[in-house]
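S., here's the first fold you wanted:
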Amino acid sequence: MDAMLNFPLHIFRAYDIRGKLTVFTPQVVAAIAYALADQYQTAGQNKVVIGYDARLSSPQYAAILTTIFEKQGLEVIQLGCCSSPMMYFMARETQGNGVMVTASHNPKSDNGIKWILQGEPPTPAQIEHIGNVAAHQHVRAIEFPRIRGLTHQINTDYCLRYQQGLLDDILLERPFKVVLDGLHGSAGHCAEIVLKKLGCEVVALRCEANSEFPDHAPDPSQAIHLEKLQHAVLNHQADIGIALDGDGDRLVIMDEQAHIITADRLISLFAQMCLEQHPQAEIVFDVKCSSMVTQTVNDLGGIATMIRTGSSFLRRYLSQSQGKAVFGGEYAGHYVFNDGRGFGYDDGLYAALRVMEYLSQFPEQSLSQLLSAFPERYSTEDTYISTHRSEPKTVLQDIETLSHHSKAQLSKIDGIRLDFDDGFGIIRASNTGEYFTVRFDAASPLQLAQIRHQFVRMLQDKYPKIAQDISNIH
């Protein structure tokens, strides 16, 4: 019973399992392995691929999963060190069953697990169920023998097959000079090879996996992490800069002027690309995206659909749309093509290649010129602020009540989002419940300040500390 009480259920989040190595231990991984094996077998599945990222603990954790899966009667294909998109690609050979040991863009002190079952990511309820079953298996996992001293292995055959899948899909009508930043994650090596095979001149930065992540966490959403990429784009006079996160499912792009392209502008471009080929189709995006995305999709004759944040929710929505939704994007940098090309999952490299393919059709245009149709917005980053011990649900309910006095359009898809004439503000409870995430966006600096102040006014009487934190966001 003590083992169950000590089991870290908080690492079982809405989209995946992720936590610090101090709690995400080999014993916990073993308990999760038993629970996952049971989930696959209950669904009538008997074959699974397993891959892992560049983290120091990842080969060991993948070996624990493999050993227990095989002990429980599952057949395992070991992919070695790879990106999450490569795991998704190879899982097509196991009826869509695959597990990836990764903490994505988190610091090196973390690790985690994401998985797919018959091609679908797990629902929050399925993740919670795995946590509860694993808690009961925790005592059993104590007896699991330790596996130590494993090194990262790249399986060339699987890497080549994934590369060929991309090369069969993409056609560049002209080559580009590309600066690629792998951020020392597990996706850079393969991405560099693909770009070179497409005829591009590649300047590779941090494309070899390094479990120490010597510069910083492999998170390209932080502009400060992209300074090396920006300098290289300018110094080499490159056409495009590409940054991939730790497991390669997220993308950040910069143009030839080393200007970081926001997710809102990139989703608008992807919407244009897809709607040209599939008129009146549906484009899906999460609640953190700006009103520019909705406006772009509407102007192009498409159907704009906003859903809750989370790449697993995005993928599931697209797969269940019966082909009506041809593209989905997330403010965090997840982009999923569902237009009869691509494979219906988020692959940072594939999304970058689609941009390059589209750009290659305009011989005289630069990337900045191509994106000039989608002007830069004025916005804050997705910012974490403390709950200051307030109950998140109550805070959101109070904002909803007070928002009725404003002229804003209210959305409760995920947290509270208020849309004004040409901008929006959103406040959401984080998965842990200890923080809110807040973002504001507008067409001008003045409108941005006004929207942020509207939230400050609604909160300052009852929640002055939260209001103060919001007023400090820039």
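And the second, which I think is the more interesting of the pair:
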Amino acid sequence: MKTILITGCSSGFGLETAKYFLDRNWKVVATMRTPREDALPRSEHLRVLALDVTDLESIHQAVEAAGPLDALVNNAGFGAASPLETTPMAMVRQLFETNTFGAMAVTQAVLPQFRQRKAGVVVNVTSSVTLKSIPLVASYTASKAAVNAFTEVLALEVEQFNVRVRLVLPGRSPETRFADNARSRMPGLDHEAYADLVKSVFARFGEPGPITHAQDVAEAVWRAVNDPSSPMRIPAGADAVSWAESS
């Protein structure tokens, strides 16, 4: 039975992906900053571990506790929205610490065992905003685009060890707390000079149309892990697929 470690499993895409792999007879190491045993169904094949991707000691403790792994999914991250002019640099750094440096640090911690065993898959979950520019998310987009870039280079570095690396790019999803979290984190949204733009962007976010469901992401991650012929970039969700085709 194979084992996968997934970061950011307390809700949204990470939670659904953990359930998806559990249902398909994988051992799942579900990690989150504050472990919640009730977040996932009880299973003898499930372990819930604490992991803060911005803390190197936390990362190494979790990876050591997880034991041998066959796949890693870097899903932990958060979104924030505001005009670049009004975005505090502290928030920009926090986005990169979690979304970018966190994914790099967890990958670094897991790669040695993959390299030594000459087997393993790394899947990084980023965003379809890296395919189509959207106002108010310059910092968030940059943090995710950086993951896209290092992922594609990493794939070239580790293919000699039979280690595969893939990207999953979700679209907008009503099943995550992105919009609410973005509003709560960004007081700069209230800047009067950008009021009309903010109003129009958030109105479009709530409009009917193609969206991404959490299961779309779980299915894309499953494909990335299990299908060696899968492409480097796998859009997840009807809107993400549409953006990928038009980009």
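Why I say that: The beta strands are 3-6, 27-32, 46-50, 71-74, 120-125, 163-170, 233-236. The two ends are 38 Å apart (CA to CA).

Talk tomorrow,
H.
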